[in-house]
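#dry-run=false #mode=assembly
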Amino acid sequence: QKEVEQNSGPLSVPEGAIASLNCTYSDRGSQSFFWYRQYSGKSPELIMSIYSNGDKEDGRFTAQLNKASQYVSLLIRDSQPSDSATYLCAVLHSGAGSYQLTFGKGTKLSVIP
Amino acid sequence: GAGVSQSPSNKVTEKGKDVELRCDPISGHTALYWYRQSLGQGLEFLIYFQGNSAPDKSGLPSDRFSAERTGGSVSTLTIQRTQQEDSAVYLCASSPPIQGLNTEAFFGQGTRLTVV
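#status=ok
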C-alpha cells in the first residue's frame, strides 16, 4: 500500500508570514511529486510539480524535495487570506506496468488577516 | 485550450438506480484518472486509463462500479444500483502520456452525486 501522509491541520498563519506544509511518502521509487490547492467546494488545482531533489520556486511558492528522507514540502511566502485552502500532496508511483497518483488527505491552511 | 470537462455537474438519483458520469479529458492527454471525494475526506483513487493499455481498476470499491474509455478519449464511470454511501464528488483528471517526468494531472470540476 503506497501511502502519502500530511498533517491535517488546521495550520493558521498571520497574513504576510511564511506557511510551511509538509508531506511524507512511503514508496522510495516514486519520481514525481505535486502540490494541489483545493478551495472548499471546488476541485483540486495544480500549483507546483517537482521531480528532483532540492528547491523549485514559482512566485511566492517554493517546493522542496528530499528523496532520501522521502519528504516533500511547500513553502508559501507572504501568505495572503486568498491562500486559505486545503493543500494536497500527490505522489506518482509505478508498479506492474501501471501508475497511480496517490494523494494525501490534505492540510487545511488558514491565513489570518 | 479547453480543460477537463465533466458532466453532469450535479446528479441526484434514487437509491437503486444506475448513473453514468462522463469525463472529457484535455486534448492529447492519454492518461485519465477517476477519484471519489466524500464530504470532508481525501481523494480516493478509483481507476486509471493509459492509452490503449488495460486500465488499472484496483481502486473500484465494488463490482457495482465500472468505467470505460472509448477511442482513448471520453470516459464514462457507471455506478449500478446506487447506494447512499456512493454519495460523493466524483473527480476526473487527465495528464500527458506518462513518459519521462511530465506527468502533471489536471482536474475537471467534478460531478456531485447525491443518492436519496
